[in-house]
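Colleagues,

For the teaching module next term, I've prepared a clean inverse folding example: a structure given as tokens, and then the sequence designed for it. I'd like students to try predicting residues themselves before seeing the answer, so please don't circulate the second half yet.
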């Protein structure tokens, strides 16, 4: 990899302040300089996440200052790691740890992140595939393992099944030997779940507990709630006594439960917990194994569409409208270039 020129510039998507997609501005900014303990990465691709939509709307709190380059994940190659944690040219992903919030994130040709948020790997998969994986895999894997301790032979309800995390959770759960029930509000999206070999696709009209109990009279062993607090009571009712619901996502943008009264809200014997996590919840071996399985055809990466950096507003609009079935990915340059 050639050395960077002094005062070199890069293309980046800058958010000057909260607002609609018109606030996302593709411009030229200086390439950041890494300090010891940080890593400069040449970004090849990044996935879109609803948390970035929340930040764009101004919902991420006082820790976010503007102007800001969004993006809580990125995939690419190492340019420089002054403390020697990584070698130049090494393939890596970076995620979480304040990316795109307290410091600039992955919506750029280069990003500079703490070494603790960087995970190395080796793969010949296209960057459009690799870029879809890190945050989606971390969230799905963390929900299934750290929180639910999902085991072969159990049943799992994925509420919000056509989201990228929902589809990844279904893939991982099937690989672990679980029976998977996934929901979608749009019957036209059912085929995308069937393609993942989901055992039961449920059309979600706001209430799916009855459908679940018609299949499994006692209810599911575990559930991942990705829609939010609007559907959480029904998801709890779909879960068996001593089963566990993991609250992971908020696709509905409804974050809190008003006038929460636990004795009335929680079905007797059903456990409720939550997952947020960080990069440490995605071991490097898990990332490498998943990428290897994708390359060998043993696992799938659910990708909805791939965009160019110039199309960031279109990509955000598609995410905001809830039109995607799977992950939205942005390439910083033409596919196939590896830095």
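(Answer key — instructors only)
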């Amino acid at each position: 990899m050639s050395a960077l020129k002094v005062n070199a510039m890069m293309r980046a998507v800058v958010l000057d302040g909260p607002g609609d997609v018109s606030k996302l501005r593709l411009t030229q900014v200086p390439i950041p300089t890494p300090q010891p303990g940080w890593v400069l990465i040449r970004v090849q691709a990044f996935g879109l996440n609803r948390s970035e939509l929340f930040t764009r709307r101004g919902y991420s709190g006082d820790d976010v200052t503007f102007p800001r380059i969004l993006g809580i994940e990125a995939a690419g190659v190492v340019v420089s790691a002054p403390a020697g944690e990584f070698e130049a040219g090494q393939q890596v992903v970076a995620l979480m740890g304040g990316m795109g919030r307290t410091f600039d994130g992955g919506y750029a040709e280069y990003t500079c992140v703490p070494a603790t948020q960087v995970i190395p790997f080796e793969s010949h998969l296209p960057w459009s595939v690799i870029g879809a994986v890190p945050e989606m895999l971390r969230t799905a894997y963390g929900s299934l393992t750290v929180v639910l301790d999902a085991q072969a032979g159990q049943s799992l309800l994925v509420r919000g099944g056509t989201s990228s995390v929902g589809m990844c959770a279904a893939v991982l759960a099937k690989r672990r030997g679980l029976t998977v029930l996934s929901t979608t509000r749009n019957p036209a999206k059912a085929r995308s779940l069937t393609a993942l070999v989901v055992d039961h696709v449920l059309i979600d009209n706001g209430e799916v507990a009855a459908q679940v109990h018609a299949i499994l009279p006692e209810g599911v062993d575990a559930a991942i709630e990705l829609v939010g607090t609007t559907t959480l009571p029904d998801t709890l009712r779909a879960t068996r006594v001593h089963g566990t619901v993991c609250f992971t996502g908020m696709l509905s943008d409804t974050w809190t439960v008003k006038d929460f009264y636990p004795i009335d809200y929680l079905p007797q014997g059903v456990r409720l917990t939550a997952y947020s996590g960080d990069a440490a919840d995605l071991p490097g071996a898990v990332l490498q194994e998943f990428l290897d399985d994708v390359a060998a055809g043993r696992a799938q990466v659910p990708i909805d569409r791939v965009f160019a950096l110039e199309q960031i507003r279109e990509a955000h609009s598609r995410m905001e409208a809830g039109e995607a079935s799977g992950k939205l990915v942005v390439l910083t340059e033409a596919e196939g270039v590896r830095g």
